[in-house]
């Protein structure tokens, strides 16, 4: 595939293939900049934040760019991606990522982490725990995290997940106490038509585009088939580049995108 991508880049006179990797500098939509500004305040205020949105809407990218602005000497960030974790697995993974040798019992590991955070705080360092796929947390685990946060209140907590995290999981009688502790609710959504166009241009520019590669008539089709979701745009545009390369075309047209849509079938 590396050879194919090199050939595709040469075919379109690009320095690299766009749409495959997160760029060093983010694409700055209005919503993204607002979310980034607010999320950045969480790290040094020991608050709880919820970041929700559809799959591929940019939750992980938002968190990545927010963390990337932090000074590692002042902030310790523990990022967890566990699907339906149990209590011990959650705390053990957290402890290991912090460089601790976890105890055997879950409650003992929890105390280790709280004590560690206290030591870090005493040295002027801020700690943040980020839990991705938080919509998969059980009701019991959400309440466990609430208790964990209350016991120390010495770290920031960011929960990121699909919309049901906010719409369902945090609206139950057992989880309302956790919801009441959340200071910040951020939502990631799809781009507008104009933002979709700007995002595609941003990707191609980062890849060193010299000449136009995509026809203007493509953008309404692309926005319609992806709902402006960044990951869907990335996939559709990359597959479109492949299609053009296979058929020796130099421009992505609306017809090419319609063929792509038949393959990935978003709409």
Automatic annotation (TrEMBL):
* One MF term in the entry's GO annotations: ATP hydrolysis activity
PANTHER family noted in UniProt: GENERAL SECRETION PATHWAY PROTEIN A-RELATED, PHOSPHORIBULOKINASE _ URIDINE KINASE FAMILY
User: Which InterPro entries does the UniProt record give?
Assistant: AAA_22, ExeA_AAA_ATPase_DNA-bind, P-loop_NTPase
* Gene3D superfamilies with a match to the protein in the record: P-loop containing nucleotide triphosphate hydrolases (3.40.50.300)
The protein's name = Type II secretory pathway predicted ATPase ExeA
Q: Where is the ORC1/DEAH AAA+ ATPase domain?
A: 45-167
Q: What Pfam families does this protein map onto?
A: AAA_22
